[in-house]
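Lab channel / #folding
Pinned by the channel admin:
"Please post every new chain as: sequence first, then the structure tokens as a reply. Keep commentary short and put observations after the output so the thread stays searchable."

First post following the new format, from NK:
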Amino acid sequence: MLSIRWQATLSYLGDYLVASEPPRPADLILVLAGDFWGPRVVKGAELVAQGYAPLALISGTPYQGRPDGELAIEFLVKQGYPARLFQSFAHDAKSTIEEAIVLRPELKRRGVKRVLLVTSAYHSRRAAIVLRLFCPGIQFIPVPGPDPNFHPHDWWNDPVSKRFFYSEWKKILGTVLVAYPGYMVKNIFRH
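Reply from TO:
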């Protein structure tokens, strides 16, 4: 009996990492960096093609001298999606927090209020937390792409899922307990 409850708790903690809401009309679809030819960009393309937003902004860092958002757009055009549905947003962010900080002025410039947030399933909860904290005033609706490498219901039985699980929980706790409070304190004393 105790074993069943323990497994239920572990499953709950794995499931919690996957934040997913039904898509609804938005000002923009934001595809986070880290996947320029896989499930994230395909999910973003599907959403924009279905008319949930007029544009998918593909965030990305340099890859072999080019923004990976440009490479993603080329990939999606080869899959039959019109190039006009996408724009690339290039940056040098090394973390989700840095990505949110560099995206904030761009999202503000575009005047967006509601964004469909596309990332990998295991990363979706943390990404939503980070963007909500570091880009206040914008509603982020997580709509993750499928992730065949993360099994939230029994993550402890799979080495790859286990690595994602521990990494994401560590980063969530680091974000809410250390990074965001430190960022706020630093900004208070900046003025």
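NK: The chain has a mean pLDDT of 95.
TO: also worth noting, DSSP finds six helices and seven strands in the chain.
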